[in-house]
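About this split. The held-out portion is used to measure sequence recovery: a designer receives only the structure tokens and must propose an amino acid at every position. Recovery is the fraction of positions where the proposal matches the reference. Here is one held-out target exactly as it appears in the evaluation file.
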């Protein structure tokens, strides 16, 4: 079996987390490191927004500061995500890797197969749903809200019938970067408290719609009568699931000196800087 690198970074600042993902992408593009799977967390809890979102229109920065929440703009698309009680993953691999589809939607399906298997290893019923019809798209979307997991046009990962993992993808320098949140718990009210809406009525409507369609592992476990899942259990399940889904061996590794130096520079000059985070 092909061997990929596995890195467990622990908790990092918002700028550092995004900088490390980009540094790995660059190193993969230059042929310096193998395809890489990374697990990480956030300190402090952080609101991240997608590359194309308008930060000052959609984010209540006074509330972000009041709650002591971090903030960062991702290099990937999608909408706002509150990173707190979760396992965050990234998968970084060359577009030329054997079997890697050229389209975003199909690559998402391939790279997310391991997530499906990870949920199943936790005893949960998970599947990849094809959103070929407008009816199916509507079932799992939250129209008009700045707070929603990014979902490709044709596939959605659902557990026990509800949307459960938010993932986003970018392609740069001939490399695919997919990262996302595997939520252990989800505080919908806190997430929506950090965002701006044109009226309180619209905010409540969007929050109710989001709560019906998005779910965390803890919610699902309570619904089906399973004990809570710890972060360590989730890490074991999803590491095994991703390896099985990709048909690879994940070997423990660490960042190279080049990646560490580049990530430190990117955290300072890009992801920790208002010019990047407030750019739109």
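Reference sequence for scoring:
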């Amino acid at each position: 079996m092909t061997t990929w690198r596995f890195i467990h970074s622990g908790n990092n600042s918002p700028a550092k987390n995004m900088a490390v993902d980009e540094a790995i992408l660059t190193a993969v593009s230059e042929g310096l490191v193998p395809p890489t799977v990374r697990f990480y967390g956030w300190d402090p809890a952080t609101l991240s927004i997608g590359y194309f979102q308008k930060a000052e229109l959609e984010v209540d920065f006074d509330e972000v500061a009041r709650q002591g929440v971090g903030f960062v703009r991702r290099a990937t698309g999608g909408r706002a995500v509150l990173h707190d009680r979760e396992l965050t993953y990234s998968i970084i691999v060359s577009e030329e890797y054997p079997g890697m589809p050229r389209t975003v939607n199909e690559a998402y399906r391939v790279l997310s197969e391991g997530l499906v298997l990870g949920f199943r290893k936790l005893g949960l019923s998970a599947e990849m749903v094809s959103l070929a019809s407008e009816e199916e798209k509507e079932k799992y979307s939250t129209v008009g809200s700045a707070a929603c997991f990014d979902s490709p046009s044709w596939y959605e990962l659902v557990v026990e019938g509800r949307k459960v993992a938010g993932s986003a993808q970018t392609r740069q320098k001939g490399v695919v970067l997919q990262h996302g949140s595997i939520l252990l718990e989800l505080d919908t009210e806190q997430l929506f408290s950090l965002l701006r809406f044109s009226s309180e009525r619209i905010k409540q409507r969007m929050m109710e719609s989001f709560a019906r369609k998005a779910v965390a592992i803890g919610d699902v476990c309570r619904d089906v009568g399973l004990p809570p899942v710890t972060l360590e259990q989730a890490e074991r399940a999803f590491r095994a699931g991703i390896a099985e889904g990709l048909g690879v061996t994940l070997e423990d590794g660490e960042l190279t000196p080049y990646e560490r130096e580049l990530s430190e520079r990117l955290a300072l000059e890009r992801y920790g800087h208002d010019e990047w985070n407030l750019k739109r």
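Annotator remark: The domain at 2-277 is CATH 3.30.930.10 (BirA Bifunctional Protein; domain 2).
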